[in-house]
Amino acid sequence: MLLARVLGGRPGPDARPARDLVWDSRAVEPGAAFVALPGTRTHGEAYAEDALARGAALVIGPQARDRGLQVDDPYRALLRLGRWLRTGFPGVVAGVSGSVGKTSTKEALARALDWPATEGNLNTPPALTRFFWHLSPDAEGAVVELGIDRPGEMDELLELTAPDLGVLTAIAPVHLEGLGSLEAVAREKLKLLAASPLRLAHVDLRHWGLPEGTRTYGFDPAANFAGEALELGCAETRFRYAGRTLRLGVLGRGAALAALAALAAAELLGRDVRVAAERLEALKPAPGRLEPLRAGGTLWLNDSYNASPKAVEAALEVLARCPGPRGVVLGTMRELGPEAERWHLEAAERVMATADRALFVGEFAAAMAAGRPGATAAASVEEASERLPDWSRGLASVLVKGSRALALERLLEGIRA
């Protein structure tokens, strides 16, 4: 059995060849291999029988079973499998990481180069291993997103993906609970560039000491790949690159930087930049990322996909160009560590400098609203939903932003209907 040889495991007598790889028993379909990974609360072994009942071809885990592949450490086995699959892929692999903007940049690269890419923000070792499992060897290249929230995780991802091109978008205060400090974030993220033969980073990251040979992009004349004449509208985004004006249907500085990174990557890889630009102009707003919705005379900007201090600042830059009066619904920004309240109070200041009204949601809402005329606090999304109709009355433009865990898009369900 090939899988047993790759993983160094001990197959049971009834183990079958697998055509998919999953680690959530609820996602098992007949013929899939179920990897029993250790979790924070329970081990995947607790769900092995459920996976088999759903038709799993075999269970990869520490226990011996007839329809199984016994391995000592399922997580390390998964990394080994991912690396083996990656080694067998002959195309170019571009790896994208950063505190903010990595998913948008990954999708821009995939569109500009016409390469397959990991879905959404699936950027962990299990998701990447499954991506390489299904990746066609005939693809010219592939784009993968690398997400980390603890020390050492980038080393695992680089061992698995071995990127030919590394793209680093930003270093910002995100995942501080696991990484501890901004310096630690930088140390982990910069490993991507050090491990990649071709290196591309946002020009603002120069002060972090970029590895030798790193090329930069940005709306700065000092960048190796410099965009010009950036216009951040409420309906479209424009900028010039290599003598061409791009008109993007996606909004915000982050979207413009993602497109610029994709054009720079195309140049680095020797691809036709004109063709890449044409593909980028066909991009549409992704759900939850400055996605415009119109209802009852109000423009709603659904930016509920995620939130960090830097991302809030970028979203407000777009809102400032939209018709007034303006409102902001801002939910809790997660994983900011012991100084989370300070970051939220600073964000509240920025919000009130742009908006006529604010509805702050979550654990820091009361402190954010205190003493600020036009600011309202809601302890939960449910409370915010009750307040929203009266609060938003008369507003021409409203930005809705918060960390993914809050699912603030629930506030917009009535508007979408």
TrEMBL record:
**UniProt-listed PANTHER family:** UDP-N-ACETYLMURAMOYL-TRIPEPTIDE--D-ALANYL-D-ALANINE LIGASE
Q: What species was this sequence derived from?
A: Oceanithermus profundus (strain DSM 14977 / NBRC 100410 / VKM B-2274 / 506)
The family database entries (Pfam families) matched by this protein are listed as: Mur_ligase, Mur_ligase_C, Mur_ligase_M
Provide the GO MF annotations for this entry.
acid-amino acid ligase activity; ATP binding
Recorded hits in InterPro entries, A to Z, give: Mur-like_cat_sf, Mur_ligase_C, Mur_ligase_C_dom_sf, Mur_ligase_cen, Mur_ligase_N, MurCDEF_CellWall_CoF430Synth, MurE/MurF_N
Question: Where does the record place the Mur ligase N-terminal catalytic domain?
Answer: 24-65
Report the residue ranges that make up the Mur ligase C-terminal domain in this protein: 288-404
Q: Which domain of life is it from?
A: Bacteria
Descriptive protein name: UDP-N-acetylmuramoylalanyl-D-glutamyl-2, 6-diaminopimelate/D-alanyl-D-alanyl ligase
The UniProt record lists the keyword Nucleotide-binding: yes
User: Which UniProt key words apply to this protein?
Assistant: ATP-binding, Cell cycle, Cell division, Cell shape, Cell wall biogenesis/degradation, Ligase, Nucleotide-binding, Peptidoglycan synthesis
Annotated Mur ligase central domain residues = 96-265
Task: Provide the GO biological process annotations.
Answer: cell division; cell wall organization; peptidoglycan biosynthetic process; regulation of cell shape
